[in-house]
Amino acid sequence: MMKTIGVLTSGGDAPGMNAAIRAVVRTAIYNDMKVIGIRRGYNGLIYGDLREMNIASVGDIIHRGGTILHTDRSDEFKTPEGMKKARNIIEIFGIEGVVVLGGDGSFRGALDLSRMGVPTIGIPCTIDNDINCTDYTIGFDTATNTVVDAINKIRDTVTSHQRANVIEVMGRGRGDIALYTGVAGGAEHIIMPEVPFDINDLCKRLIQGKDRGKRSHIIMLAESMFDVNELCKEIEEKTGIETRATVLGHIQRGGSPTVADRILASRMGYHAVQLLKEGIGNRIVCIRNNQIVDCDIEEGLAMQKGFDEELYEMSKVLSI
Ligand code: F6P
After folding, report:
1. Is 128 labeled as catalytic in the residue annotation?
2. For residue 315, is it within any domain?
3. What's the 313 CA to ligand 1 centre distance in angstroms?
4. Are strands 291-296 and 216-222 parallel, antiparallel or unpaired?
5. pTM for the full predicted model
6. Choosing from 104, 112, 128, 130, which is the catalytic residue?
7. In order along the chain (320 residues), what is the average pLDDT of each group of 10 residues?
8. In this structure, are residues 277 and 31 in contact, taking their beta carbons and an 8 Å threshold?
9. What's the distance, Cα to Cα, between the start and end of the chain in Å?
10. In a domain, 317, yes or no
11. Are residues 58 and 104 in the same domain?
């Protein structure tokens, strides 16, 4: 059985990472394994920024956003020299297996580690919900709750002034944050990369709403699609409805994780250590139909997943 494992967080942080670290550390210690906390993502492996963790080092963190191990996007790890340095540190510390918490960029590193002969398990952590082998990623639920809280507040002022507000949310090319928060926040329109956008259709719907006395119009916009200020100007010109822009930004990445994220993180962290305990590596932990399962890293990275078209169609009906 493995005696020593490492754990690291890499890429963009996500609320719930700490809950997952806690689960990894406590499950490993319960199974008589030693856990090394690797700091600043893969850079910690290159520069030897590691320290042993104990039961207490993960006390009082289940409710905290961010990551106590800190994170980074390491370009150096992708180079042969970087990998060599990492291999050296792994040997010095006697690390026999690694748990990587992050998104698909981080899982490419996990694949490299596995190929180096170090069994590595990936746990999907990103607010974007853009990892195709899992139904949900750790952090998505918290981020969407933060966005919905913002929508509620924006709606107050929008209604008072009878305006429209375009709310830009994150997602890195994926529309899940815009879609889920649009449905939960009762948005009048959702603009997301998976669906062709027709500004005339949007404006027609806004005018129809205004004509029947609607006082607030919330439009969700997934990031990197349009210049939000230009879009507001165009909507205003076409509809005569005063339109403001709100870019929510990194507020979506922080905050105390929700119950759903804490439970998902705990289940995934626990499962990851069970795999390493059996000597199994090169897997991504996933949740499918509320079951915690795992899949091969390469297969997981190659998987394709469409968006929830039914939810999108429903949102159009419910926002008439
Ligand atoms: O992947 C998480 C995410 O927050 C994306 O939604 C966003 O596009 C990106 O990271 C922002 O990256 P950074 O924090 O480096 O600005």
Report:
1. yes
2. no
3. 27
4. unpaired
5. 0.98
6. 128
7. 96 98 98 98 97 97 98 93 96 98 96 96 98 98 99 98 98 98 98 98 96 96 98 98 98 98 99 97 98 98 97 95
8. yes
9. 59
10. no
11. yes
